[in-house]
Every structure is written in structure tokens, then in C-alpha cells.
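User: Just a sanity check before I run the rest of the batch. Below are the C-alpha cells for the first item. I only need the designed sequence back.
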């Protein structure tokens, strides 16, 4: 006669760990998409600043100040995108990232 292994229910900690990774992936993908959108917005803002400078709507000093702020934010966004992409890869995420 063969004995059946007893079923051991998952504890709350174990079951939370199972869904925690998927929740993390969902949150990271959402952050990634938000950062992609912000990167696109920054490109538009930089083009708009250039247009305003060309039209004489802003002074060169103001243009440089605003442009530097956009460049610094774009660098920060790029760093965050790289970090999130690496974390998703480490978690085994195989989805498509833009």
C-alpha cells in the first residue's frame, strides 16, 4: 500500500512571495512605461524650447537654463530606464520593452 504525501497549505508569507514577484513586475513595467512617456515629453519640450528661441519668445540665457534642466531630467530618466530594465531582466521578464 502506498501512502499519499500530506498536502501542506502555503503560509501567508510563502503565498505572498509567489505573487510578490508578479506584482513587482507589473509595477516595474508600469514605471518603465511612465518613464518612456516622460522621455518622449522631454523631447517635445526641448523642440518647443528651440522653436521659442528661434521665434524670439525667450532669451538665450533662459533657453540655456531650461534646456539644461531638460537634459538633466532626460539623463535621470535614462538611468532609471536602464535600472528598471536590468531588474526586469534579473527577474526573468521576457516581455517587450520599448
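Assistant: Here's the designed sequence for the first item:
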Amino acid at each position: 500500500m502506498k501512502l499519499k504525501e500530506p498536502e501542506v497549505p502555503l503560509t501567508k508569507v510563502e503565498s505572498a512571495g509567489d505573487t510578490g514577484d508578479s506584482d513587482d513586475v507589473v509595477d516595474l513595467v508600469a514605471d518603465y512605461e511612465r518613464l518612456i512617456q516622460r522621455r518622449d515629453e522631454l523631447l517635445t519640450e526641448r523642440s518647443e524650447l528651440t522653436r521659442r528661441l528661434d521665434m524670439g519668445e525667450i532669451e538665450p540665457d533662459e533657453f540655456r537654463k531650461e534646456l539644461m534642466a531638460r537634459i538633466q531630467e532626460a539623463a535621470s530618466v535614462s538611468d532609471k530606464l536602464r535600472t528598471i530594465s536590468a531588474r526586469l531582466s534579473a527577474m526573468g521578464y521576457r516581455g517587450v520593452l520599448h
